[in-house]
Amino acid sequence: MPSAASIVARSYPDKIIGIENALPWHLRTDLQLFKQRTQGHAVIMGRKTFESIGKPLPKRTNIILSRSEPAFLKEFPALKWAINPETALFLADVESIISGSMKFFVIGGDQIYKVFEKYINSIFVTDVYCGNINGDAKFELDFGRKDDEAKTEWIIRSEDDFPKTEFDEYPFRITHYVRRKPFHRYRVKEELMGREPDFAALLERYEARLEQAESDQLDFFD
User: Fold this and answer.
1) What pLDDT score was predicted for residue 219?
2) What pTM did the predictor assign?
3) Which of 27, 53, 73, 198 falls between 20 and 30 A from 17, CA-CA?
């Protein structure tokens, strides 16, 4: 099935990701990179995260995880509502297969990250060097010591530093972590295909792409 990824920005060293449902900084470069990485994919978020954004993210399938039906669904009919994590995963799977995407993204908030943590194979973490701040939401996942990756669950695929500029309020670092042993999810084909022959053909093409992606990943780690 499609692989789950996360994107999160947090303060360093306090690991704060939000204050009263808002970002504590403005980093235009980080927002542009977020847009580039997530466009064309399904994104899963909580109701409060969507309300902080204020509108659906364009060129993405927006899936809202909420125990009760959000009132804003009537205003934005293209949104997908999931009443539980299993439904959110199912919607992300189907939308990813239809679009031919290899992955989907979990984008917040703090409780949503925790719910899907066990499924995540790849995380883009933006550490914002803004100093000590107070906030009401955190992302506290521990990736282990960088000098002893052989003993950690996560390894670093890339790491890039960005300076403070007139468009970026603070300097920051983006680290791409990947799970050493990827978590794989499985579904019975019939559950996804139903009776639609067109979807069956899509699934076959998607499986071929997955096999190629897995082969490329093995080459990378060899």
Assistant:
1) 41
2) 0.85
3) 73
